[in-house]
Amino acid sequence: MDERTKKEVLNRLRSIEGHVRGIERMIEKDEYCVDVINQTIAVQRALDKVNSLMLRNHLETCVTTAIRGEESHERERVIGELLEVFETASSL
Amino acid sequence: MDERTKKEVLNRLRSIEGHVRGIERMIEKDEYCVDVINQTIAVQRALDKVNSLMLRNHLETCVTTAIRGEESHERERVIGELLEVFETASSL
Amino acid sequence: MDERTKKEVLNRLRSIEGHVRGIERMIEKDEYCVDVINQTIAVQRALDKVNSLMLRNHLETCVTTAIRGEESHERERVIGELLEVFETASSL
Amino acid sequence: MDERTKKEVLNRLRSIEGHVRGIERMIEKDEYCVDVINQTIAVQRALDKVNSLMLRNHLETCVTTAIRGEESHERERVIGELLEVFETASSL
After folding, report:
1. Which of A41, A34, C90, C77 is nearest to D79 (CA)?
2. ipTM
3. CA–CA separation, B23 vs B37, rounded Å?
4. Set of chain B residues whose Cβ sits within 8 Å of the Cβ of A60
C-alpha cells in the first residue's frame, strides 16, 4: 500500500476503534436502542470507506501489475479475486 | 459481451421478469406479506448474480484491454469506474 | 394489504418488469457493461422501495394485531419473523 | 436492554474493537490488501450480529410496550422508526 493510503486507512481505523468504544459506553449508560443501532450502522459505513480506499490502491498496484504482466494465470487469479470481493461486499 | 455470457445473462433476466410477475400474482391473491417480501429479496439476489456475470465479463474484456494499453488516462478511467460500481453495489 | 398499498406495490412491480425488459434490450444491443450494471442496481433499489411499502403495511396490520393480542406465542412468532426479514434484507 | 443482551452485546463490541486493532497491525505489516479487505468485511458482519441482538431486544421491549399501549401516536412513532432502521440497514 502506498504510504499516503496507509496513513489515511490507519487514521480511519483508529477513529473507528474510538467509535466502537463510544457505542460500548452508550450501552453501559442504557441509551435508547435505536440510537445505538444507528451508531453501529455509522461504523459499518465508515468501514465501507476504508474498504474503498484499500480497493483503489489494490486496483492501481497489484491488479494493474498482474494484468499488464505476461502470465495469463496470474491475470485470471486477480480477476477472480476481485469478483469474490465484489460478491462478498455486495451481499453484506 | 461474449456470446455465452450474453445468452446466460438474457436467460436469467427473462426468468427474473417471470419471477416479478409471480410476485404481482401473489399480491393480487393477498398472500402473506412476509412471503411476498421474501420473494422480492430472492429477485434482488438473482440480480446480484446477473451483475456478477456482467462484471466478470467487463473485467476480462474492457478492463483488461484498458489496463494493458498505453493510455494512463484510460487506465485511470476504468479503475475509477470499477470503484464506483463497487461502492454503489456494496451500499445497496 | 390495504387497497392503496396493494395498488401502489402493483404499479411499482409492473414498472420494474418493464425496467428488466429494458435491460434485456440493452444487452441485445451490446451496450456498455457498466451502464447495464448500473440499471440492474437501479432495479434492486426499486425493489427495496417495494419491500419497504410492504413492510410498513405488515407492521401496521399483522404485527400490530399480534402484539396487541393475548397470545404470547403469536407475539414471539411475528417478532422472530421480523428479525429474519431484517437479517436477510440487511445482508443482501 | 435486559442484562443478558447488554452483556452479550458488550462482549461482542469488545471483540470487534480487538478485531479492528488486528486490522491496523495487518496494515502496518503491509499484508496483502485483499486479506485486509476480507477482515474488514468480517467486522461489518460481526456488527450486523450486534444490530440484530439489539433489534430483538428493542422489538420485545419498547416496540411491544408502545404497540400494546393506548396512544396511537406512539404506536405510529415506533413503527416509523423501525422502518427507518430497516431502510438504512438494508441499504448499507
Report:
1. A34
2. 0.90
3. 9
4. 79
Nearest-CA distance C29 → chain D (Å): 31
Whose CA is closest to D86, among C89, C33, B86?
A: C89
Alpha carbons B15 and B38: distance in angstroms, whole number = 17
CA distance C78 to chain A (A): 19
* Pick from C39, C61, C51: nearest CA to C13: C51
Walk me through the domains of chain B, giving residue ranges and CATH numbers: 3-90 (1.20.58.1000)
Of D66, D54, B31, whose CA–CA distance to C57 is shortest?
Answer: B31
Query: What is the rounded CA–CA span in Å between residue B24 and residue C12?
Result: 10
D34 grid coordinates: 485483499
pLDDT tens per residue, range B12-40: 999 999 999 999 999 999 999 999 999 99
Predicted confidence (pLDDT) at residue C92 exceeds the cutoff of 60: no
Interface touch A83/B51, C-beta < 8 Å: no
- Confidence check: pLDDT of D90 > 80: no
- Would you state the pLDDT for residue C91? 66
CA distance A58 to chain D (A): 6
Chain D residues whose beta carbon lies within 8 Å of the beta carbon of residue A52: none
Average pLDDT, rounded, for chain D: 94
pLDDT > 50? residue A92: no
The closest of C9, C2, C43, C48 to C26, measured between CA atoms, is: C43
- CA separation for the pair C65, C3 (Å, rounded): 18
C-beta of residue A19 within 8 angstroms of C-beta of residue A42 = yes
